[in-house]
Sequence to fold (198 residues):
Amino acid sequence: MSSEPTSARRRPRADAVRNRELLVDAARDAFTTDGEDTSLEGIARAAGVGIGTLYRAFPSREDLIAAVYRAELDAALDVVDALLSSSATGAAALRAFTGRYAEFVATKRGLAETVRVGALRGAAEAAGTRDRVNAAVQRFLDAGAADGSLRDDLLADDVTAALIGILLSTRDTRDAEQTGRLLDILLAGLSRRPARTA
Fold:
């Protein structure tokens, strides 16, 4: 009988983690380029692994779509700490985050146009997208309220809803700068105005 701790036995091997990352990267490229018709064999080949390795990591196509979605969401939210530590104000950090989140939504849109919408909706729900974005936004709001750059009466879900509204409304725009201008307007509305002097 092995004396190795259960947690140690269950930890994925380094090569399994690497293969999973390679498969997610290959699947992202394939789904956004070639669409739903992309073969899982083609994804495995692009990742440099066998089809058995793919099925061990992702038993179904939906599992693979969910992993791609989660990886993109994680990348969008992983910048929060860096933005808060490198930005002059909470407002500046929030504006930088809205731009990064817009990039994530563009990638998600590419997935939505090429895979079954139901699979992507399930992935978004499983990832707890709205709650995770709200938690990130709240951190920016707290920082901005503390340093005086943002109003202190803002609700994270209201800000998230406004952000999503902007990104949905500019989905088909031909004006490449419109999203940025609207995000600037949003931040102006969230910013604390200086007190008027008599």
